[in-house]
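Lab channel / #folding
Pinned by the channel admin:
"Please post every new chain as: sequence first, then the structure tokens as a reply. Keep commentary short and put observations after the output so the thread stays searchable."

First post following the new format, from NK:
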Amino acid sequence: MRLRADLLPHGAYSDVVLVVDVLRATTTAVTYLERGAEALLLTATPEVALAQRGEGIVLAGERGGWPIPGFDLGNSPAEAATQTFAGQSVVMNTTNGTAAAHIAAASGKHVLLAALTNAHAAARRARALATEEIAIVCAGTDGRVGLEDVYAAGVLAEYLLAMGDFTTDDGARIALTVRRSSGNPAEVLAGSGHGVYLGGIGLEEDVRYAAQVSVSTVVPVLDPAGEVGDVLRFVAG
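Reply from TO:
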């Protein structure tokens, strides 16, 4: 079994893909499903998201950390954790995470959303599904590698290696090195470039929330039957 980590999305995935955008899209996605959302609809653009508006639909997304005009919510996991979404579907579009999911879905057989908050559950689910390869795909920030995503990839890789034998690529080795040489998750996320930015605009609570490790058993899984062009449907797997 192969274990690979892409520090930025590259495409050409053949088996299981774990998409990671710790700050904040995949962390928030997990929280929406925890809080009762029936499904997550990840769109390619904000315009596609706006076109989904209707009864039982909540629009959530951000650009530059701020809520998109016309959307109901931003991309805050801490905010999502205070609400309930029973009977609703959440339509998401974010700067980095939803784009990474679309890249993964173009060729991946099974696409899962992973964060620190659901790391153990996501790793177990990936291992159960995989037949050839597990690819951990870091979303990064504006086309640049993000420390927080690489760290999370290392946490996922550690869990996976504890479950069996894998042949690892250099990306996975880099992620493992970052994980093993770093401090606690809260320090890593707060000290990352994007963590510093979010703290600077008053979103420190989101960074702290995202630093929790394996507190959730919810794993968003792409529903192939629900994929329609520029919309990807994820459900709790």
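NK: Residues 147-161 form the longest helix (15 residues).
TO: also worth noting, The chain has one domain: 2-236.
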